[in-house]
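Reading a protein record of the kind used here takes only a little practice. The record below shows the convention in full:
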Amino acid sequence: MKRFLCRTLAAFSLACVLASPLPACAGSAPVDLRILAINDFHGNLTPPPGGIRITDPKDPTKKIVVPAGGSEAMAILVKELREGHKNTIFVAAGDLIGASPFLSAMFHDEPTIESLSMMGLAISAVGNHEFDEGKDELLRMQNGGCHPVDGCKGPHPFEGAKFHYLAASTIDKATGKTLFPPYEIRTFDGIPVAFIGLALKGTPEIISPAAAKELEFRDEAETVNALIPELKARGVEAIVVLIHEGGLPTGDYNECPGISGPIVDIVKKLDRAVDIVISGHTHKAYICNIDGRLVTSGDKFGTLVTAIDVKLDPQSRDVISAKADNVIVRTGALPKDPAQTALIASYEKLAGPIANRRAGTITQTLSRVPNAAGESALGDVIADAQLAATADAAKGGAVVAFTNPGGIRTDITKRDDGAVTYADVFASQPFRNQLVTLTLTGVQIKEMFEQQWLDPNRPRILALSKGFHYNWDPAKPYGERVLAASMMLNGKPIDPTASYRVTVNDYLALGGDGFTVLKGGTRPQFGPYDDEALSAYIEVNSPLAPPAADRIAQTN
Protein backbone atom coordinates (compact mmCIF):
# COMPACT_ATOMS: atom_id res chain seq x y z
CA MET A 1 0.00 0.00 0.00
CA LYS A 2 1.42 3.36 -0.99
CA ARG A 3 0.71 6.22 1.36
CA PHE A 4 0.94 9.77 0.06
CA LEU A 5 1.65 12.87 2.13
CA CYS A 6 -1.10 15.46 2.06
CA ARG A 7 1.22 18.10 0.60
CA THR A 8 2.10 15.75 -2.26
CA LEU A 9 -1.57 15.23 -3.05
CA ALA A 10 -2.23 18.95 -2.83
CA ALA A 11 0.64 19.77 -5.14
CA PHE A 12 -0.49 17.17 -7.63
CA SER A 13 -4.05 18.53 -7.61
CA LEU A 14 -2.81 22.09 -8.17
CA ALA A 15 -0.73 20.95 -11.12
CA CYS A 16 -3.81 19.43 -12.70
CA VAL A 17 -5.78 22.62 -12.20
CA LEU A 18 -3.08 24.78 -13.79
CA ALA A 19 -2.33 22.47 -16.67
CA SER A 20 -4.48 21.79 -19.67
CA PRO A 21 -7.16 19.09 -19.13
CA LEU A 22 -5.05 16.13 -20.16
CA PRO A 23 -6.45 12.61 -19.61
CA ALA A 24 -3.94 11.90 -16.81
CA CYS A 25 -5.20 14.88 -14.83
CA ALA A 26 -8.82 14.16 -15.58
CA GLY A 27 -8.42 10.73 -14.09
CA SER A 28 -6.30 11.75 -11.11
CA ALA A 29 -9.10 11.81 -8.54
CA PRO A 30 -9.16 8.68 -6.36
CA VAL A 31 -11.50 5.92 -7.44
CA ASP A 32 -14.03 4.96 -4.77
CA LEU A 33 -14.85 1.30 -4.17
CA ARG A 34 -17.32 -0.05 -1.63
CA ILE A 35 -16.81 -3.67 -0.57
CA LEU A 36 -19.71 -5.31 1.26
CA ALA A 37 -18.81 -8.42 3.23
CA ILE A 38 -20.34 -11.17 5.35
CA ASN A 39 -18.99 -14.29 7.03
CA ASP A 40 -20.32 -17.39 8.82
CA PHE A 41 -23.87 -17.11 7.50
CA HIS A 42 -24.48 -20.83 8.17
CA GLY A 43 -27.73 -21.00 6.23
CA ASN A 44 -29.66 -18.65 8.50
CA LEU A 45 -32.30 -17.65 5.98
CA THR A 46 -34.61 -16.61 8.81
CA PRO A 47 -33.42 -14.44 11.72
CA PRO A 48 -31.45 -16.41 14.35
CA PRO A 49 -33.18 -16.52 17.77
CA GLY A 50 -30.38 -14.69 19.59
CA GLY A 51 -30.03 -11.69 17.27
CA ILE A 52 -26.82 -9.82 18.06
CA ARG A 53 -25.52 -8.79 21.48
CA ILE A 54 -24.01 -5.30 21.56
CA THR A 55 -23.08 -2.61 24.05
CA ASP A 56 -26.09 -0.57 25.19
CA PRO A 57 -25.73 2.86 23.53
CA LYS A 58 -27.43 4.39 26.57
CA ASP A 59 -25.21 2.63 29.13
CA PRO A 60 -21.76 1.38 28.06
CA THR A 61 -21.59 -0.87 31.15
CA LYS A 62 -24.48 -2.99 29.90
CA LYS A 63 -25.22 -5.25 26.93
CA ILE A 64 -28.44 -5.48 24.95
CA VAL A 65 -29.74 -7.95 22.38
CA VAL A 66 -30.83 -6.50 19.04
CA PRO A 67 -33.09 -8.62 16.79
CA ALA A 68 -31.03 -9.08 13.63
CA GLY A 69 -30.44 -11.28 10.61
CA GLY A 70 -32.42 -13.15 8.00
CA SER A 71 -32.02 -13.04 4.25
CA GLU A 72 -35.14 -10.91 3.70
CA ALA A 73 -33.69 -8.00 5.68
CA MET A 74 -30.11 -8.60 4.55
CA ALA A 75 -31.04 -8.37 0.88
CA ILE A 76 -32.63 -4.96 1.50
CA LEU A 77 -29.63 -3.73 3.49
CA VAL A 78 -27.21 -4.85 0.78
CA LYS A 79 -29.26 -2.89 -1.78
CA GLU A 80 -29.28 0.19 0.45
CA LEU A 81 -25.54 -0.01 1.05
CA ARG A 82 -24.94 -0.19 -2.70
CA GLU A 83 -27.00 2.92 -3.45
CA GLY A 84 -24.99 5.98 -4.44
CA HIS A 85 -21.82 3.97 -5.00
CA LYS A 86 -20.72 3.48 -8.57
CA ASN A 87 -18.24 0.71 -7.76
CA THR A 88 -19.39 -2.01 -5.38
CA ILE A 89 -18.77 -5.71 -4.81
CA PHE A 90 -20.34 -8.15 -2.35
CA VAL A 91 -17.97 -10.79 -0.93
CA ALA A 92 -17.79 -13.38 1.88
CA ALA A 93 -15.20 -15.01 4.12
CA GLY A 94 -16.61 -18.54 4.21
CA ASP A 95 -18.97 -20.81 6.17
CA LEU A 96 -21.96 -19.62 4.20
CA ILE A 97 -23.32 -23.15 4.43
CA GLY A 98 -23.00 -26.05 6.84
CA ALA A 99 -24.24 -26.31 10.45
CA SER A 100 -27.42 -24.74 9.08
CA PRO A 101 -30.97 -24.60 10.44
CA PHE A 102 -33.41 -27.19 9.18
CA LEU A 103 -34.90 -25.05 6.40
CA SER A 104 -31.58 -24.92 4.57
CA ALA A 105 -30.02 -28.19 5.76
CA MET A 106 -32.96 -30.35 4.69
CA PHE A 107 -32.17 -29.36 1.10
CA HIS A 108 -28.39 -29.68 1.53
CA ASP A 109 -28.08 -25.87 1.72
CA GLU A 110 -29.37 -25.29 -1.81
CA PRO A 111 -31.74 -22.54 -0.50
CA THR A 112 -28.83 -20.61 0.99
CA ILE A 113 -26.79 -20.78 -2.20
CA GLU A 114 -29.82 -19.51 -4.15
CA SER A 115 -30.55 -16.77 -1.64
CA LEU A 116 -27.02 -15.32 -1.64
CA SER A 117 -26.82 -15.60 -5.42
CA MET A 118 -30.02 -13.55 -5.67
CA MET A 119 -28.47 -10.88 -3.41
CA GLY A 120 -25.59 -10.46 -5.84
CA LEU A 121 -22.83 -12.14 -3.86
CA ALA A 122 -19.83 -12.19 -6.17
CA ILE A 123 -16.99 -14.05 -4.42
CA SER A 124 -16.51 -16.17 -1.32
CA ALA A 125 -13.65 -17.91 0.40
CA VAL A 126 -14.25 -21.51 1.41
CA GLY A 127 -14.71 -22.14 5.12
CA ASN A 128 -14.32 -25.37 7.00
CA HIS A 129 -18.10 -25.95 6.99
CA GLU A 130 -18.18 -25.78 3.22
CA PHE A 131 -16.59 -29.23 3.46
CA ASP A 132 -19.14 -30.77 5.84
CA GLU A 133 -20.51 -33.05 3.11
CA GLY A 134 -17.19 -33.49 1.33
CA LYS A 135 -15.39 -32.14 -1.70
CA ASP A 136 -17.79 -33.44 -4.34
CA GLU A 137 -20.81 -31.92 -2.61
CA LEU A 138 -19.07 -28.54 -2.43
CA LEU A 139 -18.36 -28.76 -6.14
CA ARG A 140 -22.09 -29.41 -6.63
CA MET A 141 -22.84 -26.26 -4.64
CA GLN A 142 -20.78 -24.33 -7.16
CA ASN A 143 -21.89 -26.09 -10.34
CA GLY A 144 -25.45 -27.22 -9.61
CA GLY A 145 -27.30 -30.46 -10.18
CA CYS A 146 -29.25 -32.91 -8.02
CA HIS A 147 -27.94 -34.44 -4.83
CA PRO A 148 -26.37 -37.84 -5.61
CA VAL A 149 -28.38 -39.65 -2.90
CA ASP A 150 -31.47 -37.58 -2.14
CA GLY A 151 -31.99 -36.37 -5.68
CA CYS A 152 -33.86 -33.15 -6.48
CA LYS A 153 -36.00 -32.29 -3.45
CA GLY A 154 -36.37 -28.54 -3.90
CA PRO A 155 -39.20 -26.61 -5.56
CA HIS A 156 -37.13 -26.14 -8.73
CA PRO A 157 -33.87 -27.43 -10.27
CA PHE A 158 -30.72 -26.41 -8.40
CA GLU A 159 -28.49 -24.41 -10.74
CA GLY A 160 -25.53 -23.86 -8.42
CA ALA A 161 -23.96 -20.68 -7.12
CA LYS A 162 -23.92 -17.55 -9.24
CA PHE A 163 -20.98 -16.40 -7.10
CA HIS A 164 -17.49 -17.92 -7.28
CA TYR A 165 -15.79 -19.87 -4.52
CA LEU A 166 -12.05 -19.27 -4.10
CA ALA A 167 -9.66 -21.75 -2.45
CA ALA A 168 -6.04 -20.60 -2.70
CA SER A 169 -4.75 -22.91 0.04
CA THR A 170 -6.94 -25.98 -0.60
CA ILE A 171 -5.27 -28.55 -2.83
CA ASP A 172 -7.08 -31.51 -4.37
CA LYS A 173 -4.60 -34.34 -3.84
CA ALA A 174 -5.90 -36.19 -6.90
CA THR A 175 -4.95 -33.35 -9.26
CA GLY A 176 -2.36 -31.36 -7.33
CA LYS A 177 -4.32 -28.20 -8.12
CA THR A 178 -6.42 -25.86 -6.04
CA LEU A 179 -10.01 -27.05 -5.65
CA PHE A 180 -11.27 -23.64 -6.83
CA PRO A 181 -9.34 -20.70 -8.32
CA PRO A 182 -6.98 -19.07 -5.80
CA TYR A 183 -8.04 -15.53 -6.63
CA GLU A 184 -10.23 -13.38 -8.81
CA ILE A 185 -9.41 -9.98 -10.29
CA ARG A 186 -12.16 -7.40 -10.67
CA THR A 187 -11.66 -4.04 -12.40
CA PHE A 188 -13.15 -0.77 -11.15
CA ASP A 189 -12.78 2.30 -13.40
CA GLY A 190 -9.77 0.64 -14.99
CA ILE A 191 -8.08 -0.31 -11.71
CA PRO A 192 -7.64 -4.04 -11.09
CA VAL A 193 -8.30 -5.35 -7.56
CA ALA A 194 -7.40 -8.92 -6.61
CA PHE A 195 -9.46 -10.93 -4.12
CA ILE A 196 -7.66 -13.96 -2.68
CA GLY A 197 -9.84 -16.52 -0.89
CA LEU A 198 -8.68 -19.25 1.45
CA ALA A 199 -9.64 -21.50 4.36
CA LEU A 200 -7.80 -21.92 7.63
CA LYS A 201 -4.83 -24.26 7.73
CA GLY A 202 -6.41 -26.25 10.56
CA THR A 203 -9.45 -27.28 8.51
CA PRO A 204 -8.53 -31.02 8.47
CA GLU A 205 -8.74 -31.12 12.26
CA ILE A 206 -12.33 -29.84 12.34
CA ILE A 207 -13.94 -31.55 9.37
CA SER A 208 -14.74 -35.20 8.78
CA PRO A 209 -11.54 -37.24 8.41
CA ALA A 210 -13.14 -38.86 5.37
CA ALA A 211 -13.51 -35.47 3.70
CA ALA A 212 -10.08 -34.26 4.78
CA LYS A 213 -8.13 -37.18 3.34
CA GLU A 214 -8.76 -36.02 -0.24
CA LEU A 215 -7.50 -32.51 0.40
CA GLU A 216 -4.45 -30.60 1.58
CA PHE A 217 -4.77 -27.27 3.41
CA ARG A 218 -1.64 -25.16 3.23
CA ASP A 219 -0.35 -22.35 5.42
CA GLU A 220 -2.45 -19.20 5.06
CA ALA A 221 0.23 -16.50 4.95
CA GLU A 222 2.66 -18.57 2.86
CA THR A 223 -0.10 -19.23 0.32
CA VAL A 224 -0.98 -15.56 -0.02
CA ASN A 225 2.62 -14.38 -0.19
CA ALA A 226 3.44 -16.87 -2.93
CA LEU A 227 0.71 -15.33 -5.11
CA ILE A 228 1.95 -11.74 -4.83
CA PRO A 229 4.58 -11.90 -7.64
CA GLU A 230 2.00 -13.44 -9.98
CA LEU A 231 -0.53 -10.72 -9.20
CA LYS A 232 2.01 -7.94 -9.63
CA ALA A 233 3.03 -9.43 -12.97
CA ARG A 234 -0.63 -9.04 -13.97
CA GLY A 235 -0.54 -5.37 -13.03
CA VAL A 236 -2.36 -5.73 -9.69
CA GLU A 237 -1.39 -3.51 -6.76
CA ALA A 238 -4.64 -3.49 -4.73
CA ILE A 239 -5.07 -6.81 -2.90
CA VAL A 240 -7.87 -7.99 -0.60
CA VAL A 241 -7.67 -11.27 1.31
CA LEU A 242 -10.84 -13.18 2.20
CA ILE A 243 -9.82 -15.66 4.88
CA HIS A 244 -11.82 -18.09 6.96
CA GLU A 245 -9.81 -17.56 10.09
CA GLY A 246 -10.27 -14.93 12.75
CA GLY A 247 -9.56 -13.47 16.13
CA LEU A 248 -11.00 -12.89 19.57
CA PRO A 249 -11.53 -9.17 20.15
CA THR A 250 -12.45 -7.01 23.07
CA GLY A 251 -14.89 -4.16 22.71
CA ASP A 252 -18.09 -3.74 20.75
CA TYR A 253 -18.98 -4.85 17.23
CA ASN A 254 -17.34 -1.85 15.56
CA GLU A 255 -14.29 -1.70 17.79
CA CYS A 256 -10.97 -3.42 18.39
CA PRO A 257 -9.26 -2.18 21.55
CA GLY A 258 -7.54 -5.54 21.78
CA ILE A 259 -7.55 -8.69 19.66
CA SER A 260 -5.88 -12.06 19.99
CA GLY A 261 -6.08 -15.29 18.08
CA PRO A 262 -4.67 -16.75 14.85
CA ILE A 263 -5.59 -13.82 12.60
CA VAL A 264 -3.08 -11.54 14.36
CA ASP A 265 -0.05 -13.66 13.51
CA ILE A 266 -1.33 -14.42 10.02
CA VAL A 267 -1.74 -10.73 9.15
CA LYS A 268 1.71 -9.90 10.51
CA LYS A 269 3.22 -12.53 8.21
CA LEU A 270 1.46 -11.26 5.08
CA ASP A 271 3.40 -9.48 2.35
CA ARG A 272 3.07 -5.69 2.62
CA ALA A 273 1.31 -5.76 -0.75
CA VAL A 274 -1.84 -7.02 0.99
CA ASP A 275 -4.07 -4.05 1.80
CA ILE A 276 -7.26 -5.39 3.42
CA VAL A 277 -8.14 -8.61 5.25
CA ILE A 278 -11.77 -9.77 5.58
CA SER A 279 -11.93 -12.58 8.14
CA GLY A 280 -14.36 -14.94 9.88
CA HIS A 281 -14.57 -18.32 11.63
CA THR A 282 -14.57 -17.12 15.27
CA HIS A 283 -18.13 -15.74 15.05
CA LYS A 284 -16.94 -12.39 16.39
CA ALA A 285 -17.41 -8.85 15.11
CA TYR A 286 -14.54 -6.37 14.89
CA ILE A 287 -13.00 -3.56 12.88
CA CYS A 288 -9.26 -3.64 13.52
CA ASN A 289 -5.97 -2.16 12.45
CA ILE A 290 -3.43 -4.97 12.61
CA ASP A 291 0.10 -4.27 11.47
CA GLY A 292 -1.11 -1.17 9.64
CA ARG A 293 -3.85 -2.98 7.72
CA LEU A 294 -7.63 -2.97 7.96
CA VAL A 295 -8.96 -6.29 9.28
CA THR A 296 -12.71 -6.91 9.59
CA SER A 297 -15.17 -9.57 10.70
CA GLY A 298 -18.98 -9.48 10.73
CA ASP A 299 -20.23 -11.63 13.63
CA LYS A 300 -22.28 -14.65 12.48
CA PHE A 301 -25.62 -15.87 11.10
CA GLY A 302 -26.16 -12.79 8.91
CA THR A 303 -26.57 -10.29 11.75
CA LEU A 304 -24.09 -7.83 10.21
CA VAL A 305 -22.97 -6.59 6.81
CA THR A 306 -19.51 -5.01 6.77
CA ALA A 307 -19.29 -1.92 4.55
CA ILE A 308 -15.68 -1.17 3.55
CA ASP A 309 -14.98 2.10 1.73
CA VAL A 310 -11.76 2.03 -0.25
CA LYS A 311 -9.97 4.77 -2.18
CA LEU A 312 -7.81 3.63 -5.09
CA ASP A 313 -5.10 5.76 -6.67
CA PRO A 314 -5.44 5.86 -10.50
CA GLN A 315 -1.70 6.38 -10.95
CA SER A 316 -0.24 3.69 -8.70
CA ARG A 317 -3.43 1.58 -8.86
CA ASP A 318 -2.94 0.85 -5.18
CA VAL A 319 -5.08 1.43 -2.10
CA ILE A 320 -4.78 4.92 -0.62
CA SER A 321 -7.10 4.37 2.32
CA ALA A 322 -9.73 1.98 3.64
CA LYS A 323 -12.26 2.30 6.44
CA ALA A 324 -15.08 0.00 7.55
CA ASP A 325 -18.40 -0.05 9.36
CA ASN A 326 -20.27 -3.12 10.62
CA VAL A 327 -23.94 -2.41 9.90
CA ILE A 328 -26.58 -4.37 11.84
CA VAL A 329 -29.18 -6.23 9.77
CA ARG A 330 -32.00 -4.94 11.98
CA THR A 331 -35.00 -7.24 11.83
CA GLY A 332 -38.19 -5.20 11.84
CA ALA A 333 -36.48 -1.91 11.02
CA LEU A 334 -35.76 -3.09 7.49
CA PRO A 335 -38.51 -4.17 5.07
CA LYS A 336 -38.55 -7.68 3.65
CA ASP A 337 -37.21 -8.32 0.19
CA PRO A 338 -40.10 -9.86 -1.84
CA ALA A 339 -37.85 -12.19 -3.84
CA GLN A 340 -36.28 -13.58 -0.66
CA THR A 341 -39.71 -13.97 0.94
CA ALA A 342 -40.90 -15.96 -2.06
CA LEU A 343 -37.79 -18.16 -2.02
CA ILE A 344 -38.17 -18.95 1.68
CA ALA A 345 -41.90 -19.66 1.26
CA SER A 346 -41.25 -22.11 -1.58
CA TYR A 347 -38.90 -24.17 0.59
CA GLU A 348 -40.98 -23.80 3.77
CA LYS A 349 -43.94 -25.31 1.95
CA LEU A 350 -41.94 -28.51 1.47
CA ALA A 351 -40.10 -28.49 4.81
CA GLY A 352 -42.91 -27.28 7.08
CA PRO A 353 -44.70 -30.57 7.81
CA ILE A 354 -41.44 -32.12 9.06
CA ALA A 355 -39.99 -29.00 10.71
CA ASN A 356 -43.13 -28.26 12.72
CA ARG A 357 -43.57 -31.78 14.00
CA ARG A 358 -43.77 -31.63 17.79
CA ALA A 359 -40.98 -33.48 19.60
CA GLY A 360 -42.14 -32.75 23.14
CA THR A 361 -41.79 -30.06 25.81
CA ILE A 362 -39.07 -28.61 28.06
CA THR A 363 -39.36 -26.80 31.38
CA GLN A 364 -36.38 -24.48 30.78
CA THR A 365 -34.07 -23.51 27.96
CA LEU A 366 -31.46 -26.19 27.28
CA SER A 367 -28.29 -24.14 26.94
CA ARG A 368 -25.21 -25.21 25.02
CA VAL A 369 -23.02 -22.77 27.00
CA PRO A 370 -20.60 -24.74 29.20
CA ASN A 371 -19.81 -24.01 32.82
CA ALA A 372 -16.25 -23.62 34.11
CA ALA A 373 -15.72 -27.38 34.07
CA GLY A 374 -16.90 -27.66 30.45
CA GLU A 375 -20.35 -29.15 31.08
CA SER A 376 -23.56 -27.83 29.49
CA ALA A 377 -27.21 -28.68 30.03
CA LEU A 378 -27.84 -29.39 26.35
CA GLY A 379 -24.67 -31.45 26.06
CA ASP A 380 -25.82 -33.60 28.99
CA VAL A 381 -29.26 -34.13 27.44
CA ILE A 382 -27.80 -35.04 24.03
CA ALA A 383 -25.42 -37.58 25.59
CA ASP A 384 -28.30 -39.03 27.61
CA ALA A 385 -30.37 -39.32 24.44
CA GLN A 386 -27.58 -41.14 22.64
CA LEU A 387 -27.14 -43.58 25.52
CA ALA A 388 -30.89 -44.23 25.62
CA ALA A 389 -30.91 -44.92 21.86
CA THR A 390 -28.10 -47.50 22.04
CA ALA A 391 -28.30 -49.05 25.53
CA ASP A 392 -30.39 -52.04 24.48
CA ALA A 393 -28.19 -55.06 23.79
CA ALA A 394 -29.65 -55.42 20.30
CA LYS A 395 -28.92 -51.77 19.54
CA GLY A 396 -25.31 -51.71 20.70
CA GLY A 397 -25.33 -52.44 24.42
CA ALA A 398 -23.85 -49.03 25.33
CA VAL A 399 -23.12 -48.19 28.96
CA VAL A 400 -22.03 -44.60 28.33
CA ALA A 401 -22.18 -42.00 25.53
CA PHE A 402 -19.95 -39.04 24.66
CA THR A 403 -20.46 -36.25 22.14
CA ASN A 404 -18.33 -33.37 20.90
CA PRO A 405 -19.25 -29.77 21.80
CA GLY A 406 -18.57 -28.54 18.25
CA GLY A 407 -21.50 -30.57 17.01
CA ILE A 408 -23.90 -28.69 19.30
CA ARG A 409 -24.68 -25.48 17.47
CA THR A 410 -27.47 -23.65 19.27
CA ASP A 411 -29.61 -23.72 22.43
CA ILE A 412 -33.03 -25.32 22.47
CA THR A 413 -34.92 -22.27 23.65
CA LYS A 414 -38.07 -22.60 25.75
CA ARG A 415 -41.20 -21.14 24.20
CA ASP A 416 -44.09 -19.91 26.29
CA ASP A 417 -45.82 -23.29 26.03
CA GLY A 418 -42.57 -25.24 26.35
CA ALA A 419 -43.05 -26.92 22.97
CA VAL A 420 -40.03 -28.27 21.10
CA THR A 421 -40.26 -28.97 17.37
CA TYR A 422 -38.16 -31.21 15.19
CA ALA A 423 -36.68 -28.05 13.65
CA ASP A 424 -35.47 -27.00 17.13
CA VAL A 425 -33.87 -30.39 17.65
CA PHE A 426 -32.23 -30.33 14.23
CA ALA A 427 -30.88 -26.79 14.73
CA SER A 428 -29.07 -27.94 17.85
CA GLN A 429 -27.35 -30.80 15.94
CA PRO A 430 -27.45 -29.86 12.25
CA PHE A 431 -24.70 -32.22 11.05
CA ARG A 432 -26.98 -35.25 11.34
CA ASN A 433 -24.21 -37.62 12.40
CA GLN A 434 -24.93 -41.33 12.78
CA LEU A 435 -24.36 -42.93 16.18
CA VAL A 436 -21.73 -45.65 16.51
CA THR A 437 -21.27 -47.94 19.52
CA LEU A 438 -17.69 -49.14 20.04
CA THR A 439 -15.80 -51.23 22.54
CA LEU A 440 -13.08 -49.28 24.38
CA THR A 441 -10.87 -50.19 27.31
CA GLY A 442 -10.66 -48.06 30.41
CA VAL A 443 -7.18 -46.98 29.29
CA GLN A 444 -8.57 -45.80 25.95
CA ILE A 445 -11.36 -43.83 27.66
CA LYS A 446 -8.75 -42.08 29.81
CA GLU A 447 -6.67 -41.29 26.71
CA MET A 448 -9.78 -39.98 24.94
CA PHE A 449 -10.39 -37.52 27.77
CA GLU A 450 -6.78 -36.35 27.66
CA GLN A 451 -7.16 -35.59 23.96
CA GLN A 452 -9.70 -32.92 24.91
CA TRP A 453 -6.69 -30.62 25.42
CA LEU A 454 -4.82 -31.57 22.26
CA ASP A 455 -5.18 -27.90 21.27
CA PRO A 456 -4.56 -26.02 24.54
CA ASN A 457 -5.98 -22.83 23.06
CA ARG A 458 -9.23 -24.54 22.13
CA PRO A 459 -10.05 -27.44 24.45
CA ARG A 460 -12.95 -29.64 23.39
CA ILE A 461 -14.66 -30.92 26.53
CA LEU A 462 -16.87 -33.87 25.61
CA ALA A 463 -20.43 -34.07 26.88
CA LEU A 464 -21.07 -37.31 28.76
CA SER A 465 -24.15 -39.29 29.69
CA LYS A 466 -25.58 -39.68 33.18
CA GLY A 467 -23.84 -42.10 35.48
CA PHE A 468 -20.35 -41.09 34.38
CA HIS A 469 -18.18 -38.69 36.39
CA TYR A 470 -14.56 -37.50 36.43
CA ASN A 471 -12.39 -34.66 37.74
CA TRP A 472 -9.77 -32.76 35.80
CA ASP A 473 -6.99 -30.45 36.93
CA PRO A 474 -5.96 -27.55 34.64
CA ALA A 475 -2.68 -27.19 36.50
CA LYS A 476 -1.50 -30.63 35.40
CA PRO A 477 0.51 -31.09 32.18
CA TYR A 478 -1.06 -32.40 29.00
CA GLY A 479 -1.70 -36.12 29.28
CA GLU A 480 -2.20 -35.99 33.05
CA ARG A 481 -5.15 -33.66 33.50
CA VAL A 482 -7.85 -36.27 34.11
CA LEU A 483 -7.57 -37.88 37.52
CA ALA A 484 -7.83 -41.60 36.74
CA ALA A 485 -9.12 -42.47 40.18
CA SER A 486 -12.02 -40.02 39.75
CA MET A 487 -13.38 -41.74 36.64
CA MET A 488 -16.59 -43.42 37.80
CA LEU A 489 -19.41 -45.18 35.97
CA ASN A 490 -22.57 -45.71 38.00
CA GLY A 491 -20.59 -45.35 41.21
CA LYS A 492 -17.84 -47.83 40.27
CA PRO A 493 -14.28 -46.90 39.25
CA ILE A 494 -13.32 -47.34 35.62
CA ASP A 495 -11.10 -50.40 35.34
CA PRO A 496 -8.16 -49.63 32.99
CA THR A 497 -8.15 -53.19 31.63
CA ALA A 498 -11.91 -53.73 31.38
CA SER A 499 -13.93 -53.23 28.18
CA TYR A 500 -16.86 -50.83 27.88
CA ARG A 501 -19.43 -50.30 25.15
CA VAL A 502 -19.29 -46.59 24.30
CA THR A 503 -21.53 -44.59 21.94
CA VAL A 504 -20.16 -41.64 19.96
CA ASN A 505 -21.11 -40.14 16.61
CA ASP A 506 -19.47 -41.28 13.39
CA TYR A 507 -17.47 -38.03 13.17
CA LEU A 508 -15.75 -38.83 16.47
CA ALA A 509 -15.44 -42.52 15.63
CA LEU A 510 -13.24 -41.58 12.67
CA GLY A 511 -10.97 -39.48 14.88
CA GLY A 512 -12.69 -36.13 14.38
CA ASP A 513 -11.69 -33.14 16.53
CA GLY A 514 -8.41 -34.90 17.28
CA PHE A 515 -9.91 -37.83 19.22
CA THR A 516 -7.75 -40.31 17.36
CA VAL A 517 -7.93 -42.94 20.12
CA LEU A 518 -11.53 -43.63 19.04
CA LYS A 519 -10.26 -45.06 15.77
CA GLY A 520 -9.00 -47.95 17.85
CA GLY A 521 -12.49 -48.89 19.05
CA THR A 522 -13.66 -52.38 18.14
CA ARG A 523 -16.96 -54.12 17.29
CA PRO A 524 -18.61 -51.02 15.81
CA GLN A 525 -22.41 -51.10 15.59
CA PHE A 526 -24.21 -48.28 13.81
CA GLY A 527 -27.39 -46.81 15.23
CA PRO A 528 -29.82 -43.95 14.50
CA TYR A 529 -28.86 -40.38 13.62
CA ASP A 530 -28.16 -38.02 16.51
CA ASP A 531 -31.14 -35.76 15.76
CA GLU A 532 -33.49 -38.74 15.71
CA ALA A 533 -32.13 -39.94 19.06
CA LEU A 534 -32.62 -36.53 20.66
CA SER A 535 -36.12 -36.08 19.27
CA ALA A 536 -37.17 -39.49 20.59
CA TYR A 537 -35.62 -38.79 24.00
CA ILE A 538 -37.46 -35.49 24.42
CA GLU A 539 -40.73 -37.12 23.41
CA VAL A 540 -40.38 -39.91 25.99
CA ASN A 541 -39.16 -37.66 28.80
CA SER A 542 -41.43 -34.62 28.36
CA PRO A 543 -41.67 -32.31 30.11
CA LEU A 544 -37.87 -32.43 30.13
CA ALA A 545 -35.87 -30.39 32.65
CA PRO A 546 -32.14 -29.59 32.44
CA PRO A 547 -30.17 -32.19 34.43
CA ALA A 548 -27.91 -31.25 37.33
CA ALA A 549 -24.41 -30.24 36.20
CA ASP A 550 -22.55 -32.82 38.27
CA ARG A 551 -20.77 -34.99 35.72
CA ILE A 552 -17.52 -33.08 35.26
CA ALA A 553 -15.62 -31.35 38.06
CA GLN A 554 -12.65 -29.02 37.76
CA THR A 555 -10.21 -29.09 40.65
CA ASN A 556 -7.42 -26.71 41.59
